Amino acid sequence: MKIDAIRRSYTKDKLDLDKLNADPIAQFELWLKDAIATELPDPTAMCVASVDSNGQPSQRLVLLKDVNTAGFTFYTNLGSRKASELSENPKVCLHFPWHPLERQVIVYGTAERVSNTQVMQYFLSRPKESQLAAWASEQSRPISTRQALMQKFAEIKHKFEHGEVPLPSFWGGFLVRPHQIEFWQGGEHRLHDRFMYKKSESGWQIERLCP
Ligand SMILES: Cc1cc2nc3c(=O)[nH]c(=O)nc-3n(C[C@H](O)[C@H](O)[C@H](O)COP(=O)(O)O)c2cc1C
């Protein structure tokens, strides 16, 4: 398969300092709105990169469930690879790959666990099947067959047939507090626009980066 000639030009938009919001979260919300309005698949999906105690990075997609001045929130299994890596080393990097808009956003920050009340609120808002699946899956652990997983799911479904599904103690969320956020807009001839926001004591500073 020949792939070296696969390429395209990026001409959709331009980014300049005077077009940017002084607050990166407000800027992010504008771009997220565009991603949602464009109806690209999974507009809230972000790649979360974590690093283990040997310095080995790993990454995976998760869904952003909240963004506000404090940061970016997602939910997951607390026994998963990402959760155990983040509890040892909270340094994290998020990536939003909005290709159809010729944009990407990269967030550098620190992850902390969100409160049980917040986790509970979100868990209760999920469809019942997703709540049951959270109970059935020992995320990131080996399992012999898909059948074994379905069997576990059926048992859990039976167990919680009546009433609300309780919040599993091994399920939770992370808030990523950002200290740097980059906005990238594809440009003609690979001369892309990149702006890095850096948090300082006096607020957010913005600098343009070479593409
Ligand atoms: C579009 C998409 C959205 C996903 N959303 C989540 C999510 O919100 N939370 C989650 O734990 N896993 C989510 N996953 C699954 C993760 O990518 C990953 O497989 C899982 O969390 C286990 O990761 P880990 O073993 O690296 O911890 C999603 C996968 C995709 C492709």
What is the structure about, briefly put?
By secondary structure, the protein is of the alpha+beta class. The chain contains five helices and nine strands, in the order H-E-E-E-E-H-E-E-H-H-H-E-E-E. Helix 4 packs across helix 5 (146-159).
The CATH topology is what?
Pnp Oxidase, Chain A
Helices and strands, in N-to-C order?
A: HEEEEHEEHHHEEE
| CATH architecture assignment name | Roll
Any idea of the CATH class? Mainly Beta
Mean pLDDT: 97
Rg, Cα atoms, Å: 20 Å
Number of strands: 9
Helix content: 25-40%
DSSP strand content: 25-35%
Describe the model:
It is a single chain. The protein is α+β, with helices and mostly antiparallel strands and 211 residues long. It has one domain (17-123, 169-209): Pnp Oxidase, Chain A. It has helices at residues 24-37, 81-88, 116-125, 128-136, 146-159, and strands at residues 45-51, 57-63, 66-68, 71-77, 91-98, 103-113, 171-185, 193-200, 203-209. Strands 1, 2, 3, 4, 5, 6, 7, 8 and 9 form a nine-stranded antiparallel beta sheet that branches. Helix 4 crosses helix 5 (146-159). The model has no long low-confidence stretch (mean pLDDT 97). The structure holds flavin mononucleotide. Belongs to the pyridoxamine 5'-phosphate oxidase family. It is an enzyme of class 1 (oxidoreductase). Pathway: Cofactor metabolism; pyridoxal 5'-phosphate salvage; pyridoxal 5'-phosphate from pyridoxamine 5'-phosphate: step 1/1; Cofactor metabolism; pyridoxal 5'-phosphate salvage; pyridoxal 5'-phosphate from pyridoxine 5'-phosphate: step 1/1.
